[in-house]
Automatic annotation (TrEMBL), chain A:
A molecular function GO annotation: nitrogenase activity
Subunit structure: Tetramer of two alpha and two beta chains. Forms complex with the iron protein (nitrogenase component 2).
Domain of life of the native organism: Bacteria
Protein name: Nitrogenase molybdenum-iron protein beta chain
Organism from which the protein derives: Acetivibrio clariflavus (strain DSM 19732 / NBRC 101661 / EBR45)
Keyword Cytoplasm on entry: no
An example Gene Ontology CC term for this record: molybdenum-iron nitrogenase complex
Record function comment: This molybdenum-iron protein is part of the nitrogenase complex that catalyzes the key enzymatic reactions in nitrogen fixation.
InterPro entries (UniProt xref): ChlB/BchB/BchZ (IPR050152), Nase/OxRdtase_comp1 (IPR000510), Nase_comp1_CS (IPR000318), Nase_Mo-Fe_CF_bsu (IPR005976)
Domain Nitrogenase/oxidoreductase component, chain residue ranges per copy: 23-436
Family (UniProt): Belongs to the NifD/NifK/NifE/NifN family.
Keywords annotated in UniProt: ATP-binding, Iron, Iron-sulfur, Metal-binding, Nitrogen fixation, Nucleotide-binding, Oxidoreductase
Catalysed conversion reaction: N2 + 8 reduced [2Fe-2S]-[ferredoxin] + 16 ATP + 16 H2O = H2 + 8 oxidized [2Fe-2S]-[ferredoxin] + 2 NH4(+) + 16 ADP + 16 phosphate + 6 H(+)
TrEMBL record, chain B:
Catalytic reactions on record: N2 + 8 reduced [2Fe-2S]-[ferredoxin] + 16 ATP + 16 H2O = H2 + 8 oxidized [2Fe-2S]-[ferredoxin] + 2 NH4(+) + 16 ADP + 16 phosphate + 6 H(+)
GO molecular function: ATP binding; iron-sulfur cluster binding; metal ion binding; nitrogenase activity
Lineage per the UniProt record: Bacteria, Bacillati, Bacillota, Clostridia, Eubacteriales
Keywords: ATP-binding, Iron, Iron-sulfur, Metal-binding, Molybdenum, Nitrogen fixation, Nucleotide-binding, Oxidoreductase
PANTHER family referenced in this protein's UniProt entry, alphabetically: NITROGENASE MOLYBDENUM-IRON PROTEIN ALPHA CHAIN (PTHR43457)
Source organism (scientific name): Acetivibrio clariflavus (strain DSM 19732 / NBRC 101661 / EBR45) (Clostridium clariflavum)
UniProt name for this protein: Nitrogenase protein alpha chain
Superkingdom of the organism of origin: Bacteria
Family (UniProt): Belongs to the NifD/NifK/NifE/NifN family.
Length: 453, 529
């Protein structure tokens, strides 16, 4: 497996091998699916749209709908205005969404299609909405695309009507529907009024009923998106995915914001709870404190399962930053921390955490899995955590592997189970522990196989 | 049926209605003229097509499976990323050969590359690939922005080829070219003919063939190879499943080209016929009866008593092995109906396998096939190339003075031409049952409506459709990825397919879809202790 990856590190300037990111539009598509009765639309040639739908479908094992402008060479040369106008007309008359959320690709960005102008020239039925975000694939990653679409929602929809709604906006970041459900459960435990956007729960984890629903019951409603401008405050979870949307909302509607880490692990969840408490003026409910205590109880009881283990973590920046913090609190050693998404703040933030923990590790933004594999070959780790693509390295180097992040293509159920909050923390501990103990069992001599561990 | 269909189509805006009508045919055995269908034309914007792009057809389908080449995507990261491990074209390394199937190579273009051009970065990426992997071949595949910013990837390829002393070939398969994956197949075929096939020399045996348009999805190619080798054929080149560029170089030495997927590889079949004199034979190794027929057709071409005997002996042996198992699954499948919507060839091939299991195909359609795949190659002269596909080069080749050979006498050729599909393919429509539906470039709306109308027991399509059908309570089997199973080809593949279909139909979960309280009253009143 991966037999042609040499041990000697090679510095590369032109070639990316086995990326740890993908391109913007799929993030925008995911964000748009978090709007109720929304059809995402990809303004480019149709290959992108097919790939992005597949990426999400394979991760969630659920239908993922999106339309495309289906550029031909003519449109690529002379502009895609006609294609988009035709698409808008067809989508509304055939598929009847309440809102179309357009994103772009490297094609329409390179030719410079003026989307707002094209939307103005389009036939949009009464009461229907078209919004857009520019998502050039040659900038950032899918996380940037998610962030841009969230910003697009604010730009087009958020309004400060002057009547405060007393709610908290929560931008959950690029996380699973289960995480959004868990965040909402926490907010409800406070009795807090909130608007979460986008929200893919009830969309990409919709139940089987025997009847296919093109627009499932989930998703943030358009009127809620408009109302985000009247909220008390915005909590942006994950700086890469959510900060820009919150900043835009502050700029446009004067809603103050706080950017927090994705609430993975004890400390990040603590900060999320304290922030809710601060904004709402409500005490932290006992049921959450109880959950917290349960996790810490497990952490102390089982520390010897994972303490001192060297771990390599890769994936999307917000998730990896939070996961690194959690790993440190578990007494693990995050030896290699890598994201494919570019951004100096990643290296800075993770670097500082490692330094504070006294860990001598390597951190890289805009890195790829070939680099990560080479690092591991130089000095191995005890555990690898990341997306499905990591399984090749795990196999090549015989490293225990925990699947976490986007995409997970080779296991099921993961998208229904939270990683965030205290419950998510408990689940991550279980995954890490089980994986390491399974390996210990596998490797043990007969006389060393333990009944109780 | 016709009226019900019209009712479905009525919802379309006028222009869409007019367009889509031409892509839908109800098979009518009483029709005086052969039925025609519109195909290989541009997709309607906003219709929710299943189609992909030219790059997918070139890099993802044809070039990607060649395991000893660095297939380098020149573009932003997505295109390379999405074709990384997602098509299950398996490959196994022989000895110390290079096998790069688990790798994804990209120039990961950034904004500055779009502004100042990506040629320098491409050259640098090639240099790094050469340093690290020492490949003998590098293929460069273009993506959407490459054509627009004017990167001359062919010039970079030429320069790198000279500098590094290896084969470097560029493919201008920008995603917007043509109207679907199909354009990409053509571009890949042209490049392989121009730069790879016929560049090596090697002695081959008497019963030598190339297996063309077989992608070894889930190991299909291996099962076909197993059967062919058992009979005594020598396979010179596999194009492309589990194939190597090294073997492709000798493809012109084989006696016959055996074609599984007509759509993606017929160009190479035709061009090799003109250039080297090799005939091609359309086969179908999906399904038991069709595999038997294909093996017999193949034997007829070589017309050798030993080969006939070996062919029949192998068929008998294989049938003995699989018949008891197939019969078990057939009991579960018999009498069911299937709707098939797959890329450019499987919607036809799998009808045979379903027939073997007693399943009737009520709908079949392709994403990107051309009229000849639907109606047969006899309509080729009547197909008008439209503006959207004109940019795909039609490569003109001439007989190769050194390698051109004639394999069959004129009389023999004429005789065989009437008996087997020699340099010919008769298409899907004529094999379909009266009253069944044929739909080209089926879209989401039609899928939903037609599933409601036909209520098939099995819907065979791809990943984007699969869960739509499941949510509606219809078992869906992916015929692109085989739902991570396979092989489905040949004799043993038929058993695995039958097992998978039977399993999908019988899984007890289907009975749990409706909660009991929706169908039974919950007893009112309370217990008295």
């Amino acid at each position: 497996m991966l037999d042609f990856t040499p041990k000697e590190y090679v510095d590369r300037k032109g070639l990316v091998i086995n990326p740890a990111k993908t391109c913007q539009p799929v993030g925008a598509m995911y964000a748009a699916l978090g709007i109720h009765k929304c059809l995402p639309h990809s303004h480019g040639s149709q290959g992108c749209c097919a790939y992005h739908r597949k990426f999400l479908t394979r991760h969630f094992r659920d239908p993922v709908m999106a339309s495309t402008s289906s550029f031909t060479e003519g449109a690529a040369v002379f502009g895609g205005g006609t294609n988009l106008k035709t698409a808008i007309k067809n989508v509304f008359s055939i598929y009847n969404p309440d809102i179309i959320a357009i994103h772009t690709t490297c094609l329409s960005e390179t030719i410079g299609d003026d989307i707002p102008a094209i939307i103005l020239q389009s036939q949009v039925p009464e009461g229907k909405i078209v919004i857009h975000a520019n998502t050039p694939s040659y900038v950032g990653s899918h996380i940037t695309g998610f962030s841009n679409m969230v910003k697009g929602m604010v730009k087009y929809l958020s309004k400060n009507s002057g009547v405060p709604n007393g709610k908290i906006n929560v931008i959950p970041g690029f996380v699973n529907p289960a995480d959004m459900r868990e965040m909402k459960r926490i907010l409800k435990a406070f009795g807090a009024e909130f608007i979460m956007f986008p929200d893919t729960s009830g969309v990409l984890d919709a139940p089987m009923t025997g009847k296919y629903e093109m627009y499932p019951s989930g998703g943030t409603k358009v009127e809620e998106l408009i109302d985000t401008g009247n909220s008390k405050a915005t909590i942006a979870l994950g700086s890469f995915a959510s900060a820009d949307g919150a900043f835009e909302l502050d700029k446009k509607c004067k809603v103050p914001y706080t950017v927090l880490k994705t609430p993975i692990g004890i400390e990040a969840t603590d900060r999320f709870l304290m922030e809710i408490s601060k904004i709402t003026g409500k005490e932290i409910p006992y049921e959450l404190e109880e959950e917290r205590g349960q996790v810490v109880d497990v952490m102390v009881d089982c520390h010897y399962h994972y303490h001192g283990k060297k771990v390599a973590i890769f994936g999307d920046p917000d998730l990896v930053i939070a996961l690194t913090e959690f790993a440190i609190s578990l007494g693990m050693i995050p030896k290699y921390v890598l994201t494919g998404t570019p951004g100096d703040s990643f290296e800075k933030e993770v670097g500082e955490m490692l330094k504070a923990a006294g860990v001598d590790g390597k951190v890289k933004a805009a890195g790829d899995l070939f680099t990560l594999h080479q690092w591991i070959k130089e000095e191995p780790v005890d555990l690898l955590m990341g997306t499905t693509h990591g399984k090749y390295i795990a196999r090549a180097e015989d490293i225990p592997f925990v699947r976490i992040g986007f995409p997970i293509l080779d296991r099921s159920v993961h998208s229904y189970m939270p990683l965030v909050g205290y419950r998510g923390a408990m689940r991550i501990i279980e995954m890490i522990s089980n994986t390491l103990l399974d390996r210990q069992d596998r490797d043990a001599a007969d006389e060393d196989l333990e009944l109780i561990m | 049926m016709k009226q019900k269909l019209d009712k479905i189509l009525e919802k379309y805006p006028a222009a869409v209605f007019k367009n889509r009508k031409q892509h839908i045919v109800v098979k009518d055995d009483s029709a005086e003229q052969p039925q025609t269908i519109a195909a290989n034309v541009r997709t309607i914007p906003g219709i929710i097509t299943n189609r992909g792009c030219c790059y997918a057809g070139c890099k993802g389908v044809v070039l990607g499976p060649l395991r000893d080449a660095v297939v380098l995507t020149h573009g932003p990261i997505g295109c390379g990323y999405y074709t990384w491990g997602t098509r299950r074209n398996k490959g196994r390394t022989k000895g110390d050969e290079l096998n790069l199937l688990a790798y994804c190579f990209s120039t990961d273009l950034q904004e500055s590359d779009i502004v100042f051009g990506g040629e320098k970065k491409l050259y640098q990426a090639i240099r790094e690939a050469v340093d690290i992997f020492k490949p003998k071949t590098i293929f460069i595949c273009a993506t959407c922005p490459v054509g627009l910013i004017g990167d001359d990837i062919h010039a970079v390829a030429l320069r790198a080829q000279k500098e590094f002393g290896i084969k470097v070939v560029a493919f201008s398969c920008e995603g917007y070219k043509g109207v679907s994956q199909s354009g990409g197949h053509h571009i890949a075929n042209n490049g392989l003919i121009k730069h790879i096939i016929g560049t090596g020399e090697k002695a081959v045996g008497k019963y030598s063939i190339n297996l063309l348009g077989e992608y070894n999805i889930g190991g299909d190619g291996w099962e076909i190879e197993r059967i062919l080798k058992k009979i005594g054929y020598e396979i010179v080149a596999l194009i492309p499943g589990n194939g190597t560029v090294e073997d492709l170089k000798y493809a012109h030495k084989a006696t016959l080209n055996v074609i599984q997927c007509h759509r993606s590889i017929n160009y190479i079949g035709d061009m090799m016929r003109t250039k080297y004199g090799q005939d091609w034979l359309k086969v179908n190794f999906i399904g038991i009866s069709s595999t038997i027929k294909s093996l017999r057709d193949l034997a007829r071409y070589f017309d050798d008593p030993d080969l006939y005997a070996r062919t029949e002996a192998v068929i008998a042996e294989e049938l003995e092995e699989i018949t008891p198992q197939i019969e078990e699954y057939r009991k579960i499948c018999k009498g069911k109906t299937a709707a098939l919507f797959v890329g450019g060839s499987r919607a036809h091939h799998y009808q045979h396998l379903f027939k073997d299991l007693g399943v009737e195909t009520v709908l079949a359609g392709y994403e990107f096939a051309h009229r000849d795949d639907y109606e047969g190659r006899e309509v080729l002269p009547t197909i008008k190339e439209d503006g959207d596909s004109k940019n795909i080069e039609n490569l003109e080749v001439e007989p190769d003075p050194k390698h051109y050979r004639i394999f069959l006498s004129k009389e023999k050729y004429e005789q065989l031409k009437n008996e087997i599909q020699l340099n010919d393919y008769t298409g899907m429509i004529r094999e379909m049952k009266n009253g069944s539906l044929v739909i080209d470039d089926l879209n989401h709306y039609e899928t939903e409506e037609i599933l409601k109308l036909l209520k098939p027991d099995i819907f065979c399509s791809g990943i984007k459709d699969k869960y739509v059908a499941h949510k509606a309570g219809i078992f869906s089997k992916q015929l692109h990825s085989y739902d991570y199973s396979g092989p489905y080809a040949g004799f043993r593949g038929a058993v695995i397919f039958a097992r998978d279909i039977a399993m999908g139909l019988k899984t007890p979960s289907w009975k749990l879809v409706t909660p009991p309280w929706k169908t039974q009253p919950i007893i009112e009143g309370s217990y008295v202790c």
